[in-house]
Amino acid sequence: MVSEEILITQIVTVALSIVALIVSLKLLSNYKKTEVSTALLLSIYSFFIFLTYLFAFLLRFPSSEVNLAEKSMIVPLVVFVSLGFQAFFALLFVVDMFRPFKQKWIAVPIALILVYFISIAFGPPIKVLTSPGVYEWISSAILNKTSVIPVLMAYTPVGFLAFYSIKMPRKEDKAKGLLLLVGFFMIATFSNFFDHYGIVPPILPVRRILIAVGIMILYWAFVRYKWIR
Fold first, then answer.
1. Where would a tag sit more exposed on the chain, N or C end, judged by fewer CB atoms within 10 A?
2. Residue 22 pLDDT grade (very low, low, confident, very high; cuts 50, 70, 90)
3. Over the stretch 111-155, which tens digit does the pLDDT of each residue have?
4. Total-model pTM
5. What does DSSP say about strands 126-131 and 134-138: parallel, antiparallel, or unpaired?
6. Taking the domains of the chain in order of start, what are their residue ranges?
7. Is 16 within 8 Å of 208 (Cβ atoms)?
8. What residue ranges in the chain does DSSP mark as E strands?
9. Measured CA distances, 203 to 22, 115, 208, 210 (Å)
C-alpha cells in the first residue's frame, strides 16, 4: 500500500513534469516564430527538467509491486544524466545572453559536462540500503566528488545574472535579469542541489512545487521582455 506522503510527492512530481513540458513546448513554438536562440536553449533546459522528474516519478511508481528504484539502474541513470544536461543548458543560456563572449566561453560548459558524464560512465549509480528494507540508487558522481560540477554549473547563471542586473542601465533589463536570477536560483537550489543530494527529504513535495514556480518565473521573464536574435 502506498503511503499518503509518497502519493502526494508523486502527484506533485507529475504536476512539475507537466509544467516543465508545457513551458518547453511554448518556448520551442516561440523559437520557431522568432528564431531567438535563447528561447531554444531555455526550451531544451525545461525539457530536461521534464525528463528528470518524469523519471523521478518512475523511481517511485505508486505500486508496491512496481518499484523501479529497486529493480532498474537505467531509471536513476537517466535522472542523473538529465540533471547534468539541465545544468549544462542553464549555463549555455547565460553564455548566449552575453553574446560578445559567446564563442570564447562556449568551451567551458562543454568541458565541465564531459567530465561529469565521463565520471558517470565509469561509475554507474549504486544501490545502497538507506533504511531497513529500503534501497535507493545514488550517483557514483557523489562518491567521487564530480557531482559538484552540475551544481556549480547550475548556480553560475545566478552570478552572471546578478552582474547583468547591476550593470544594465535600463530598468527593463534589470527587471528581466532579476526575474531570470530568481528562477534559476530556485531551480538550482531545489533541483540540482537539494534533489541531487537528497537534502531535507520531508519537504520533498514543497521543493518540487518551488521548482515548478521557478520554471514559470523563467517563462514569464522570457515572454514579458524583449529578446534579440
1. N
2. very high
3. 777 777 777 666 666 666 555 555 566 666 666 666 788 888 889
4. 0.85
5. antiparallel
6. 4-224
7. yes
8. 126-131, 134-138
9. 25, 31, 9, 11
Query: Bigger pLDDT: 223 or 48?
Result: 48
Q: Which residue has the cell 552570478?
A: 159
Find, among 107, 113, 111, the residue nearest to 85 by Cα. Answer: 113
| Domain topology for 4-224 | Rhopdopsin 7-helix transmembrane proteins (1.20.1070)
Q: Do the Cβ atoms of 41 and 30 come closer than 8 Å?
A: no
Instruction: Tell me the C-alpha distance between 65 and 168, whole Å.
Output: 55
Please state which of the ranges 98-102, 142-146, 156-160 shows the lowest mean pLDDT: 98-102
pLDDT at 205: 86
Q: Which of 224, 132, 119 is nearest to 178 (CA)?
A: 224
> What cell does 179 get?
526575474
From CA 156, how far away is CA 147, in angstroms rounded? 15
Rounded distance, CA 164 to CA 178, Å?
A: 9
Which set of grid coordinates corresponds to residue 84?
Answer: 547534468
